[in-house]
Amino acid sequence: MPIPLIIDTDPGVDDTVALVLALQSPEADVRAVTVSFGNVGIEKTFANARRVLALAGRPDIPVAAGAARPLVHEQEEWAPEWHGADGLGGRSAEFPEPVAADPRFAVALMADVLREATEPVTIISIGPLTNTALLLATHPDMTAKIGRIVAMAGSLGAGNTRGVAEFNVYADPEAAHRVLNQADVPVTMVPLDITMRTLADGDWISELTASGPRCATLAGVIAGYRKAFNERYGIDAVALHDALAVLEAVLPGTLRTTALPIRVACDLGPARGATVADRRPDAAGPPVHVALDADTDAVLAEMARRLRTLR
Length: 311
Ligand code: RIB
Ligand code: CA
Known about the structure:
single chain, about 300 residues, alpha/beta, eight-stranded mixed β-sheet, two-stranded antiparallel sheet, 12 strands, globular, binds calcium ion
C-alpha cells in the first residue's frame, strides 16, 4: 500500500533530487508539495517546486506556497552559494514551465490532505520547519492523521551554516523546537551526522546524467553544488541531504535511528540553531528518532536506481 506523503521543501538542489526521488518511488503516494522560504526566497522556491513537478510530469500534484519567513526572528541566511541564485544551480531555464500553483496557503493544503486521508500521512520536511510547526500549532485536531514526520534537520556534531547549526534548523530554530519537542507525532530526524557520510561522487552523478534527457537536466542542477562542496570540503562529491530523508520515508528503516530527546538552541548567541541530544538515561522530553547510521553504499545505489527511472 503506497504511503501517503506531504513533502515540505525549499528547492534547492538536494530538494530537487529528493522530490524526483519521491515521485519515482512506487511506495510513495505524493498527495501534496508545500513550499517555504529557505535556500532562496519563497518566490523562487515556489516556482522551483512547480518546475520540478513539471519535469517529472506530475501536474496532478497540488503545490502551495507557505511561510515566506521564520516564525519569530528575520531570516539571516540564504544559500545561493550552494544552490545558485535561482535555487536550481542556475539551471532553471532548462526546466519546463512550472505546473499551476495551488491557491491555498501551504498549511491549509496540508490540513486538507490530512482531513481527507484515510491512512496515516507521512510529512517529509526538507527545508525550514516553519510550515510544519504552523500546521501542528494551528491544526492540533489533525495530528492524529499524521503517521510520522521525517525531517532532514539538525546535527549532533558540526553544523554547516554555522559552527554548530544545520541550515534548516538555523533558518527557524523556534519552528524546529516546536516540531522536535512534541509528543503527538513521532519524528524521525535525519541530521548532517548521516547525510555528510552519504556522499554521491562524480561517477554517481555521471551515471545519472547518462540515464536520459530528464536525468541530465536533474544532474545538471548538481554541478554548482558539487563545485561548492569541493571548494569548502576539498572533496569531489555531494551530500544530497534531503534525498536521504525521502528514502527513509518511503522505505522505513533504511536509516538506523537512536531515540533521543533533542533540545534546540533558540537564543541569539553563537550556538543558535544547535540541536543538542540529551543522552542521560533519565532525560526528560519526547524522544526523537535520530538517524545516525546506514549502509551508505546501499542507500546511494538505491537512490540512483530510482532516480534513473526518470529517464
Ligand atoms: O543543511 C542541509 C539542508 O539545508 C538541506 O535541506 C538543504 O536543501 C538546505 O536547505
Ligand atoms: Ca532543503
